[in-house]
Amino acid sequence: MTKRALVTGVTGQDGAYLSQFLLEKGYEVHGVVRRSSHRGVEDHRLRWLGISGKVTLHDADLIDLSSLLRTVQDVQPDEIFNLAAQSYVASSWRQPVLTANVTATGVTNMLEAMRLGAPGARFYQASSSEMYGLIQEPMQSETTPFYPRSPYAVAKLYGHWITVNYRESFGLHASSGILFNHESPLRGVEFVTRKVTHTVAQIKLGKTNELRLGNIDAKRDWGHARDYVRAMWLMLQQETPDDYVVATGVTTTVRDMCRIAFDHAGLDMEKHLIIDPAFYRPAEVDVLLGDSSKARRVLGWTPEVNLDQMIREMVDADLERLRREP
Ligand code: GDP
User: Is residue 90 located within the same domain as residue 110?
Assistant: First the structure.
């Protein structure tokens, strides 16, 4: 029997890699798309991976319960991956209520749609290491207390706990993956890794001369999105639903990540990097470092790509994209 998956946020980085992964496993993949007037551009990541015709798209929105319920009833998925969110931390201070509606309440809407429309399905919630915020332990695991530091992180924390609550209240097979930062050539340019690799490629091709960043002392545990979507799937293959940290266990400053990109392009970082306070945040998450030993032990998961390899892949992809542009 072919398995059916329903993916919210299917047009995002993780949605695209997860769809590719599931298609390779023989799944029928359905995606939820929030239609805008920019029709045609929203599936560019699926096109980049060569799978855009292979994913069936449904018009629905996380803030519109009836649209989700209708989609779940139509698709009758075996597995639901809730990846959609207002996921950009800096924007969450400018649009805090929207962030709460989508990133927090939206999870309840999706869980309700599943409970009413396909209660036997398995559910994955995309939780985030940002929930640790002002870290309470040097390495963050499933048992580390949370201390969110942005409206985004507060909303994600709600999404995490409502997932746990629906599992405990209704016996749903609902799991929450606490994923540390994960990047790729398909990452949005709003995020620091892709901003860096994209700008470095522009500098290399003479299209700009400077890279403006905020706090380059911040440290993140960065992994590759392709590795991380595999962990999502593994969680839903377990007999019992549970929560898992997914991380590399290596933390690096924004500055050192940047240096990898400049070095790979054969450029001198000191000549181009400018610190611009406009990119400082009202509250910062200084350092994140994940302990994914539970995922490694129970799921047999292990990351295959390190930061060096990933940043080089991203710079190369950005150079290729810019060279192809007219
Ligand atoms: P986040 O961990 O989900 O907030 O992922 P980001 O990639 O947006 O940011 C990672 C870190 O890079 C944060 O500590 C930011 O403050 C820092 N950072 C420094 N300069 C920039 C910048 O220009 N853009 C972004 N997005 N982040 C920056």
Answer: yes
